[in-house]
Specification:
Number of helices: 7
CATH superfamily of the largest domain: Cytidine Deaminase, domain 2
CATH topology of the largest domain: Cytidine Deaminase, domain 2
Largest sheet: 8 strands, mixed
CATH architecture of the largest domain: 3-Layer(aba) Sandwich
Number of domains: 2
Shape: elongated
Radius of gyration: 21 Å
């Protein structure tokens, strides 16, 4: 599932606005319904970000693969629930009725899904916890970054990764100043963990100055990464991959600049292009 977004594409020293297809990202709340002493109980066990479509297969695979249930025939039925929300009018809750709940330990299940290195929202216990706490927008006039600095930052990030060169299987987030100097880099197998480490490190050492700095992250940019950057009032976030629809929507809501598909010689600006200095 995808949707069209207006994007400013920069390539070969030229920029133009085009329609681009963006993968849809929406949260899915997984609720188990089971019986204890003839009483039906409903408990949220996880929220995961997904591309909407075939949610029944997603939930079935999740329950089996994580050994929430041992056999597929323990599932009596799967119901899509909740109101149709957001601009795509999608129902984002699924209730799974279990006909054999004798071996289900809900407390153990909820502990097991509190954290997940590839998805920073998988441990949230309700869709309400995804709401942004932040009320104020980011100042749109700062920072100003030359497009050449943007294109160089992924290579600088990789050159400063100590673990990537050894394993090739780890993400990184880097804090840069507007001259392209790297201030700090942190790595982790999870994109959101790497960003948490970076922000925690720079805050403790009072290195963060959102008026003259930006973030570059390995991989794609999703809702979770944008939300974390917003909490520290960072106005520009750059990724080597594509952003999701929810990341773009969130960036636009709070006046953040989102730049993706960054390579040597090209990049896409998905929101608030005025912070990027382009000289055609």
């Amino acid at each position: 599932m995808n949707s069209n977004y207006k994007v400013l594409k920069f390539k070969s020293n030229n920029s133009k606005e085009v329609d681009d297809k963006i993968s849809i990202e929406e949260p899915l709340e997984i609720i188990l319904k089971y019986k204890i002493e003839k009483k039906w109980i409903e408990k949220t066990i996880s929220i995961t970000m997904r591309t909407p479509g075939d949610d029944e297969s997603l939930v079935t695979g999740f329950l089996i693969n994580e050994r929430v249930i041992e056999k597929i025939n323990y599932i009596e039925k799967i119901e899509v629930s909740g109101e149709k929300v957001g601009q795509y009018k999608i129902k984002n809750k699924v209730i799974v009725t279990i006909n054999n709940s004798e071996n289900i330990d809900i407390d153990k299940i909820k502990r097991n899904f509190l954290t997940n290195s590839s998805c920073g929202v998988c441990g949230k216990t309700s869709l309400d916890s995804l709401e942004i706490i932040k009320k104020d927008k980011i100042i749109k006039s700062i920072p100003k970054i030359n497009h050449e600095i943007i294109m160089k930052s992924p290579n600088v990030l990789r050159q400063n990764q100590s673990e990537f060169s050894k394993t090739g299987g780890i993400h990184a987030s880097g804090l840069f100043d507007t001259n392209g100097n790297i201030i700090a880099v942190k790595e982790d197998v999870g994109r959101h963990n790497a960003l948490d480490k970076l922000i925690g490190f720079t805050l403790k050492r009072k290195l963060l100055d959102n008026s003259s700095q930006f973030l570059t992250c390995s991989g794609r940019l999703n809702f979770d990464l944008v939300q974390k950057a917003l909490m520290s009032n960072i106005g520009v976030i750059i990724g080597v991959g594509a952003p999701t629809s929810l990341a773009i929507d969130l960036a636009n809501k709070f006046d953040m600049t989102l730049v993706g598909f960054v390579k040597e010689g090209s990049f896409n600006i998905y929101s608030n292009k005025d912070r990027i200095i382009i000289k055609n």
